[in-house]
Specification:
Elements lengths: L2 H4 L4 H7 L34 H8 L4 E4 L9 H17 L3 E6 L5 H13 L11 E7 L2 E6 H5 L3 H14 L15 E3 L5 E3 H9 L7 H4 L14 H17 L40 E4 L13 E3 L1
Parallel strand pairs: 1-2
Antiparallel strand pairs: 2-3, 3-4, 5-6, 5-8, 7-8
Helix pairs in contact: 2-5, 3-7, 4-10
Length: 306
């Protein structure tokens, strides 16, 4: 599951994550209730946190790292949906920064609820099996490590998992850069590439052969363009309106400008790290289909998204 899907933490997902009541599931409004339901909720695995700085630098030397402190103190389901959406949006738009959160007493309720939701979606282990220890977001990919997984992991293993996240990001088949960071064109076959790369191929001849199909890729991937800054602001305003109606205080926004090298500490409760903010101007939205030339008028036109 990618970070775009992770941003869709709606009321239905939060309701499914709730402990069933006598009359059926209930919306998760008080996240602290999960702390009494998870046997190991008060256990925090810190064996590798002291090596996190070095692991991130080794895995992604050209990337920055930013700790997500905005899960701290989140105790309401709607606030959690806003924080998670903001973090996912930041990761997709700040493409050279790895965002991460270590579970501590301050963010345990929020991260354990998030883990339960992701377990229901089949993207990570259930918190009843072992509670979340680390959460990583990179572009459109997500990695959740539990206490049990972390205890069996070496620093080298953590480096490989982070490298695998970077390799798993969706790329343009022409330039191999992250696909969603630029304006895109989707070909009739369903594959996508950067519009600039499409223009280069189109300039070389009247018909553009899909690079992915040429390489034997028969998949028909679903392309989800990045949300524009205006659309994201609108979504966040709707959440804030809901919070206001519920008399719940909102939280600060995530500011990717403050992304800095990772700074992990053995004493997690003492960590104070910069805040991330998703409101990047590099977001993308759907645009009009591109027009083919006269010779290709009968063929389906590629679709450009920004």
């Amino acid at each position: 599951m990618d970070a775009a899907d992770a941003a869709d933490l709606d009321d239905a997902a939060l309701t499914a994550a709730a402990t069933p009541a006598a009359s059926g599931p209930r919306l998760v409004l008080d996240l602290k209730q999960i702390l009494s339901e998870i046997p190991d909720a008060d256990e925090y695995d810190t064996r590798l946190t002291g090596q996190l700085d070095a692991a991130l630098a080794e895995a992604l030397p050209a990337f920055g790292a930013c700790a997500l402190t905005h899960f701290d103190g989140v105790e309401h389901g709607v606030v959690l949906s806003r924080v998670y959406a903001a973090a996912s949006h930041a990761a997709r738009n700040d493409t050279n920064t790895l965002y991460y959160a270590l579970r501590t007493r301050r963010n345990s309720a929020a991260l354990l609820t998030l883990q339960r939701i992701e377990a229901l979606r089949g993207t990570c282990a259930d918190c009843e099996e072992s509670p979340l220890a680390m959460l990583f977001l990179l572009r459109d990919t997500q990695l959740v490590l539990t206490n049990a997984q972390l205890r069996c992991l070496t620093k080298g293993g953590l480096v490989e998992l982070i490298c695998a996240m970077e390799r798993a990001t969706v790329r343009c088949p022409v330039c191999a850069d992250f696909l969603y960071e630029k304006k895109m064109t989707t070909l009739p076959c369903g594959h996508s590439l950067h519009t600039d790369c499409y223009a280069i191929l189109a300039a070389a001849g009247s018909a553009v052969a899909c690079p992915s199909c040429t390489e034997g890729d028969q998949s028909k991937p679903a392309v989800v363009a990045n949300m524009t800054a205006d659309a994201f602001h609108s979504q966040m305003q709707a959440v804030e309106s809901t919070l206001s109606n519920l008399s719940v205080s909102a939280i600060e926004e995530v500011d990717p400008v403050q992304a800095t090298p990772a700074a992990a500490d053995e004493d997690e409760d003492e960590d104070e790290v910069p805040d991330p903010d998703p409101e990047s101007d590099d977001a993308d939205e759907a645009d009009e289909p591109e027009k083919g030339d006269a010779d290709a008028a009968a063929a389906p036109a590629p679709i450009t998204t920004e």
